[in-house]
Amino acid sequence: xxxxxxxxxxxxxxxxxxxxxxxxxxxxxxxxxxxxxxxxxxxxxxxxxxxxxxxxxxxxxxxxxxxxxxxxxxxxxxxxxxxxxxxxxxxxxxxxxxxxxxxxxxxxxxxxxxxxxxxxxxxxxxxxxxxxxxxxxxxxxxxxxxxxxxxxxxxxxxxxxxxxxxxxxxxxxxxxxxxxxxxxxxxxxxxxxxxxxxxx
Length: 200
Description:
- The protein has helices at 2-25, 35-51, 53-135, 138-145, 150-158, 162-174, 179-199.
- It is mainly alpha-helical.
């Protein structure tokens, strides 16, 4: 009798488990659904999931995010094109600047060489003038030099030997009332000329 009770209890437990599974799953265990029914169930589950408001809002957010990423990508590409063009323009400007700087340096060098040639030519002319004034009578030379600018007189006198220069200055002072003023101006101009020569 005990054995029968145990067997009945075991059968009731198994049937209760099957019943519970059937209620929860909606079908019997080990029962296969026909494919048509399984497809309808799957599509109805998908449509139910897609139709839910939470899923719809998430899909909308994803679409907006994709769209904003596409816009940002287009703006980035546009900015890159603008930057590439600016870089090319800057490289062209820099190349032009280098050419102009090279040409400017060449012109400056030519100008400096021309000025040196002019200065050397002027120096030769002043040496010749100094020779001419040295051979003149000191009184005549003094009279002639009084009509020139002090700087030019200084350049001429500076090319003479000290004896000829002193004789002309002495005559300038003695032959004219304002001769000492001329000599003072000439002396200042000679001093400035010598100071500039020392700086060079």
